[in-house]
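Slack export, channel: ligand-projects

TW: morning all. Re-posting the request from yesterday since it got buried. We need the structure predicted with the small molecule present, not the apo form. The ligand is zinc ion; the SMILES is in the block with the sequence. No rush, but it would help planning for next week.
GE: picking it up
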Amino acid sequence: MGHAEAAVRAMADRRDFYVPTDALGDIDWLSDLTVDRADVPGTNHVIRSAIAVDGSHVVHRIRDGMPSVVYGFAQAAAAYVDLAVMRDQRAERFPDPVAIQKAVNSALISADLPVAGAYTRPGVDIKTSWRELVNEIFRTKLVQVNGINESLEQLLYRLRGTPQVVATTILVNCPSCDTQDIPVSIGGSVCTNADCGVDLYATDALRIYESAVEDGDNVTALGRLRSVIELLVLTGLATLLWQQSRTDHLAHTLFIMDGPLAMYGEPAKLRGWAEDYFQEMNRLTPGPGPFVCGVEKSGSMVDFGETLARNELLRPGQLLVCDERVIRRVLNTPNPESYGKETYWGRKFIYRCLDGRTVVVTVPADSRAAYDSRGGQPGPEGYSTLPAILDVIDATGSTMYRNGIIPVAAAHGHAAFPIGVGTDVLRLVASQRLGF
Ligand SMILES: [Zn+2]
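GE: finished. pasting the full token output, ligand included:
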């Protein structure tokens, strides 16, 4: 087993398979899709600060001799970064870590729960246990920053509504009797089917419990929970700036999500909620903003971008528009025109930074869907925040991570678990909470 990796590599070497990002082949058509930085249409606007949101999650087998008992922990952090300090530091040959640290403020939300082999109470299955735990987390965990003090549940109703009007109900399908579209108010409701009558929670709409299994570590379900929490942290912070400083702070702040602007798996319907919510915020903002993007440091789009960069097909300061042809090429899909419509609430662009790094950004469209069943809007027209976002990406390059940027690195520093320490702490928390 010690040589497993070498063995798998050797097996892979003997097989023929197709890696789309390896083979460049005929790429003349790509030149139609590259845009020089100066020619990207949109608002050229100075961003003064960035707020990056990142999270992490971990599961651990916490009971000696009972490996089926698994405990989980998830957290999301937001880091505020003063870009004026970053721009000054960029002029220095050796950036001062203390100056960078002082430019960063962070806030954190975390949740812990038994994810398998342990239940909320006797006589409930794992799915019910998960439903009750996620409901409790959403009721009790607060996003607290100056001027905002809302539970995750309140933020979920906010995201379902508009920046002006919080939704009063969220539609839920009953997990017990399958009655569809039951309106659930904040605080919970009861199934409308008189023969059923189980308690329903707004968080049932996330459907995270559906993938929970008795035997397993349920790490995927925990990851879905974490990505929803990250989106709600973003929603809370953006709404705060929109409410309190629409023409000033909102117009000069870039929100950066670590990873693409996407919602995978069971809670995917939040993709549409997020797209509608932030486009409505854009419509209700007199000047430019909100500025929101996702940054990917790895994945097939990043690999493709780096292959282009190595071959000087994408030069520093150039943006690649990812239309159907690029999607067909990179993702090897026969159906590229409908790619992404169930997952992403922004459009992907590959950008080669002025210093040579390759970054894949996801940017929300000003209006209408970024991806739909007919190819969506490849851009760059229709993404007026793009030039300002590229400015920040250029100004905040980080050598801490391959193709990273400093705001995300800062948020990550607060949201990540140090290997070793993290799992020991988790064992301790679990022993106290579960009384082991
Ligand atoms: Zn029911």
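GE: first-pass observations. The CA atoms of residues 119 and 129 lie 6 Å apart. The longest strand covers residues 49-61.
TW: perfect, thank you
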